[in-house]
Design a protein that fits this description.
Layout: H1 9-20, H2 24-36, H3 58-64
Length: 68
């Protein structure tokens, strides 16, 4: 790695793997961890093909809802 900080990118890759394995709870927990670590691409989560198994998962949909 040439960058000094990962900003949750490594955790998001783990989340993608768990999503593809259909381990939805672990995938969502890892997504939340990645966001807490500073993952910069929250706006792209609903386009990530690897996260497609989570699209119909209610807690994932709740995570993507805009907050007031």
């Amino acid at each position: 790695m040439t960058q000094p900080y990962l900003y949750g990118r490594h955790t998001m890759w783990r989340a993608r793997i768990h999503a593809l394995l259909e381990d939805r709870e672990q995938a969502l927990a890892l997504i939340r961890d990645a966001l807490h670590q500073g993952y910069p691409h929250f706006h792209l989560l609903h386009h990530d093909v690897a996260l497609e198994p989570l699209y119909a998962y209610a807690p994932f949909q709740e995570l993507l809802k805009p907050r007031d």
